[in-house]
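Lab notebook, bench 4. Still working through the backlog of constructs that have no structural model yet. Next entry is a single chain of 220 residues. Request: give me the structure tokens for it.
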Amino acid sequence: MDDKQLPTGLDDYLNRFATFAAPPRPLGIPEKRGRGLNLLAAVAVVAVVVAILAVPIAVGRLQSRHTASAVQPSAVSSPAPTSSPPPGGPVPSQLWGNWYLPGAAVRQVTAGTIPCPSNPTPTNCFFQLMLGGSTWSISFVASGGIVVPSQGNVVVNSNEMDFYNSAYCGIQLPAGLGRFTWRVTAGVLYFTLISDTCSRANVLTNRGWTRTLVAGQPGG
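Model written out:
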């Protein structure tokens, strides 16, 4: 039979069959294997991100270590130890109060630089020593009124009296210590120099100190 004599419907059917294209054959990787590769790829991406984020942290730690090792802490000066007073106790209570030297001592010690009044009396020209339990001061009265040139602390150890921290000398312990022996004879207080880096001895040992300001007092 001639092809041209085939029924129209059959011809159409054969044409469709001849031109039918088979579906493409899949070329990919099996499903399970593909999932494994995708998981590995995700893990690799996470690892890269973590490495990138860790870089500035590591750099910061290195910089801080370098700075800590390069900067040395400054030395802190410790306070100077405070010197203890010389051994001894308070001034005996019978010595507390004021003791006096007459105008003759003022003129001698000051060599005329502090003139007494033209007609000096025991009440207008004198030295005054004040002794307390742990303090002392020396002042004088002359034409310029009362002046307190020296004061500080004192301790007594038997017959030794030690003067220190004098405002007049401006020397603090352990320097500036004045050591004297003392005695009271017939109501008069006498000092004898042992050693002193200040000028207290010029007044303290000049002559005997009395409790009153009267003409003709001992040592006047």
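Notes after review: The longest helix spans residues 31-70. The domain at 98-204 is CATH 2.40.128 (Lipocalin). Flag for follow-up if needed.
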